[in-house]
Amino acid sequence: MTGFLSRGVLVGDTRITVHDPSGRRPDRELDGVQKVHAVAPNIAIGFAGNIDAAMKTIGDARWNLKDIPEGAMLDQPSRFLIHWRRRLRWGWTNRLTDDERAGGLHLFYMCALPTEHPAFGRVVGWIVRSPEFEMERVPDGVARSIGSGSEIDEYVAELERISNERAGLHQFELSAWDHVGGPALPIQIAISDAIESCATPGISPHLVVCTVRWGEVRVGTNDREGLTDPTMTRTMPPIARNWAEWKAFKARHRLADTLALGQVVQADLR
């Protein structure tokens, strides 16, 4: 969700669905993949779809931004997306294998625009989807989603409620709430509660929570400690955060001959 005074909020779960193309083993679900990533000091990308393709894509974004001097930022981050999506489209067709394209790939691109005051600044977002990677602008102040959660009525309803109550979320942009991510706090609580009350295959209760603003992309989790009730404790499992860690994760779980998906759906639900 964008449209706040100072930042945008991007949330992703950690679950993948593992499919054996041979059909010898049933599908299974695993937690342990980070689907929201900082790629620059004012740009974050969330993904859904083929994990191999996604991890390579996130790495490609970082590689294309590597020449930016340390401490500097793109003052036209949307222009980067315009050019990078052409590279994505070409690479999707010419560089990835059929197995890496299986399941498709959706990306949520969120970026902060230049500002002279860190407490105020515009953040904008786009969704791009394989194979064409056309840019779909995310309206300001509207909570949008990609992936399998997009077709769960209860989750869609929660996003609509968050959008409708955006004015109330602005109070969390006061400096007193900055250390917990400002409006990311009530958003992550709302999404966590929706997942717990309506547990659905393919969706994990463990969330990576990211805030994006000019000069800072902050990545955290929705971990919590149950002080009086141990069942309320929620601790993020070890997660693969890049291509090297994903390869190690696949080896550890013997996924070399399987298809791993952070599932996507083709319906464009709002």
List the helices and strands and how they pair.
Blueprint: E1 8-13, E2 15-19, E3 28-31, E4 36-40, E5 43-50, H1 51-64, H2 77-94, H3 98-101, E6 105-112, E7 123-129, E8 136-138, H4 153-164, H5 166-169, H6 184-197, E9 207-213, E10 216-221, H7 243-252, E11 259-262
Antiparallel strand pairs: 1-9, 2-3, 2-11, 4-5, 5-6, 5-11, 6-7, 7-8, 9-10
Helix pairs in contact: 4-6
Question: Which labels suit this protein?
Answer:
disordered C terminus, 11 strands, Glutamine Phosphoribosylpyrophosphate, subunit 1, domain 1, alpha+beta, 7 helices, 270 residues, three-stranded antiparallel β-sheet, single chain
Summarize the main sheet: 8 strands, antiparallel
Class from secondary-structure proportions:
alpha+beta
- How far do the termini sit from each other? 12 Å
CATH class wording: Alpha Beta
CATH superfamily: Aminohydrolase, N-terminal nucleophile (Ntn) domain
Share of residues in helices? 25-40%
Give the strand content. Answer: 15-25%
How many individual domains? 1
Question: Which term fits the overall shape?
Answer: globular
- Average residue pLDDT: 89
Low-confidence stretches: 266-270
CATH architecture verdict: 4-Layer Sandwich
**Rg to the nearest angstrom?**
18 Å
